[in-house]
């Protein structure tokens, strides 16, 4: 099974900050990596698919990069609505999620 | 618009069974792979299973293999998850979700979820 490890597990930041969340796969997954946002009490929302493609309707302050085993999600300038939990997901072989990164207001 | 509505959740005793349903509307259901994802209270997302558009392929996470079965009825635009030998650790909100393949697979639309509680 492919294991996905996110870091950090939690993060405190301020509105306007640039934030980077990383995700590492236990083996190569080429670019089969997605990022989701889940606000408290809400359903997850697809942000980035295939490592770097922005899902329709997602603000351009979100971006993704990486391939192989190492990936990043960058939020260029945090907005109040961005405080949420973020998950990476691999779909290269079966499906696995990372453990999540909780982004909190500093 | 796309809608996925889960039903069938509830309280069940350890060792018991439950069948979840997911009614789809607003898209061509028979063209899409579908997946079940769960989230235990206060925990992260966990993949459960997926099924191909014509039911040719299914896949399950190791912890549910042999206990859970997913199947679909394309004529009725419905997805199902049959859960047997339920354990306390199966307690979670179960989401039905649509899979999308562009350059790779992703999950682009989620239902609101149905809560399954396994407890004596």
Any descriptors?
heterodimer; A: 106 residues; mainly beta; seven-stranded mixed β-sheet; four-stranded antiparallel β-sheet; B: 120 residues; 11 strands
Q: Please trace the helix and strand order of chain B, writing H or E for each element.
A: EEEEEEEEEEE
- What is the succession of H and E elements of chain A? EEEEEEEEEEE
Helical fraction of chain B equals: under 10%
Q: Supply the number of helical segments of chain B.
A: 0
Q: In angstroms, what is the radius of gyration of chain A?
A: 13 Å
Spatial shape of chain B: globular
Give start-end ranges of low-pLDDT stretches of chain A. none
Strand content of chain B: over 45%
State the total count of DSSP E strands of chain A. 11
Average pLDDT score of chain A: 97
* Largest interface, C-beta within 8 A: A-B, 28 and 23 residues
SS summary, helix count of chain A: 0
Structural class of chain B: mainly beta
Q: What composes the largest sheet of chain A?
A: 7 strands, mixed
What is Rg of chain B?
14 Å
What distance separates the N and C termini of chain A? 36 Å
Distance between the termini of chain B: 40 Å
Gross morphology of chain A is globular
For the biggest sheet of chain B, the summary is: 7 strands, mixed
Describe the structure in your own words.
The complex is a heterodimer of chains A (106) and B (120). By secondary structure, chain A is mainly beta. In chain A, 0% of the residues lie in helices and 50% in strands. Chain A has no helices and 11 strands. Chain A has strands spanning 4-7, 10-13, 19-25, 33-38, 45-49, 53-54, 62-67, 70-75, 85-90, 96-97, 101-105. Chain A is globular, with a radius of gyration of 13 Å. Chain B has strands spanning 3-7, 10-12, 18-25, 34-39, 45-51, 58-60, 68-73, 78-83, 92-101, 105-110, 114-118. In chain B, strands 2, 4, 5, 6, 9, 10 and 11 form a 7-stranded mixed beta sheet that branches. A 4-stranded antiparallel beta sheet of chain B has the order 1-3-8-7, with no helix packed on it. Chain B starts with a strand and ends with a strand.
């Amino acid at each position: 099974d492919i294991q996905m490890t996110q870091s950090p597990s939690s993060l405190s930041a301020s509105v306007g900050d640039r934030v980077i969340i990383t995700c590492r796969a236990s083996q190569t997954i080429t670019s089969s990596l997605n990022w989701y946002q889940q606000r408290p009490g809400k359903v997850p929302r697809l942000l980035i698919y295939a490592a770097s493609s922005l899902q329709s309707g997602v603000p351009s302050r979100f971006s993704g990069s990486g391939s192989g085993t190492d990936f990043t999600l960058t939020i260029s300038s945090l907005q109040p609505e961005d405080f949420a939990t973020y998950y990476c997901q691999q779909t290269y072989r079966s499906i696995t999620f990372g453990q999540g990164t909780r982004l909190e207001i500093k | 618009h796309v809608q996925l509505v889960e039903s069938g959740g509830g309280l069940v005793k350890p060792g018991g069974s439950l069948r979840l349903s997911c009614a789809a509307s607003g898209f061509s259901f028979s063209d899409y792979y579908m997946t079940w994802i769960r989230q235990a209270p206060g925990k992260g997302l966990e993949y459960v299973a997926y099924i191909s558009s014509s039911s040719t392929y299914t896949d399950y996470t190791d912890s549910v293999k042999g206990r859970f079965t997913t199947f679909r009825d394309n004529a009725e635009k419905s997805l199902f998850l049959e859960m047997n030998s339920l354990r306390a650790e199966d307690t979670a909100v179960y989401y039905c979700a649509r899979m999308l393949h562009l350059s790779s697979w992703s999950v682009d639309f989620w239902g609101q979820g149905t809560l399954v509680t396994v407890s004596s």
